[in-house]
Amino acid sequence: MARGMQEYSFGPESKNRQLATLLDLDRYIYFVAGTVGRLLTDLICLKRFGISPRRQQILRNQAVTFGKALQLVNIIKDSRSDEAEGRCYIPRELLASHHLSTRDFFHSRQREKILPVYHQLIRQACEHLDGASIYIQALPARHYRYRLGCIWTVLLAHETLRRLTHHLEDFIAGTDIFKIP
Predict the structure, then answer these.
(1) CA distances (Å), 60 to each of 44, 85, 148, in order?
(2) What span, in angstroms and rounded, lies between the C-alpha atoms of 68 and 157?
(3) Is the dihedral of CA 170, 171, 174, 178 positive or negative?
(4) Dist CA 58 CA 55 (whole Å)
(5) Cβ-based burial of 177 (10 A; exposed 0-12, middle 13-18, buried ≥19)
(6) Closest CA relative to residue 131, chosen from 70, 42, 45
């Protein structure tokens, strides 16, 4: 995690303020959140918690996806405010594939080009959320506190994506903030 955070740091001394490729995005969300999913899963799979080997395998297989889902939702919903603060987690490669520069993406009215970028990111987040649901289902009911914590975060992520999808035009125009009350 520390190596990855250092690699993708957008601190004040950093010359890099935007991710370059889709692979960079995947690596970034792995380091920021996938590693947290692995750590929490390793802790919950300790012998004293009595989780069957079959369930442990499912949890371990989905742990990174669970973390990536939540981080990608945050990247999408915070993309406009991040850009205003001088950071961009939407890769240049993705924007270029839709014939957009970073400036065009955030400061133009080219909705016909901007919408597909967000749709692609939202689809990717939904795929990760599917894995997060598998993760939650593998958690034994007796670990209800941990399970509820996971359920709440996934429900909030789903609701955030639902609102973004239904109000994407307003989001692109910069007139809507997507915080779940």
Answers:
(1) 10, 35, 18
(2) 11
(3) positive
(4) 5
(5) exposed
(6) 70
pLDDT by residue for the chain (181 residues), tens only, comes to 677 666 666 655 555 578 999 999 999 999 999 999 999 999 999 877 889 999 999 999 999 999 999 999 999 999 998 898 888 999 999 999 999 999 999 988 888 999 999 999 999 999 999 999 999 999 999 999 999 999 999 999 999 999 999 999 888 887 656 666 6
Helix axes 53-84, 22-29, angle to 10 degrees: 120
Ramachandran bin of 180, using left for φ above 0, alpha for ψ from -120 to 50, beta for the remaining angles: beta
- Strand runs labelled E in the chain: none
How far apart (Å, rounded) are the C-alpha atoms in residues 105 and 99?
Answer: 10
**Closest by Cα among 107, 122, 125, 123 to 173:** 107
pTM of the model: 0.90
Spatial contact of 75 and 122, defined as CB atoms under 8 Å apart: no
Strand, coil or helix: what is 8?
coil
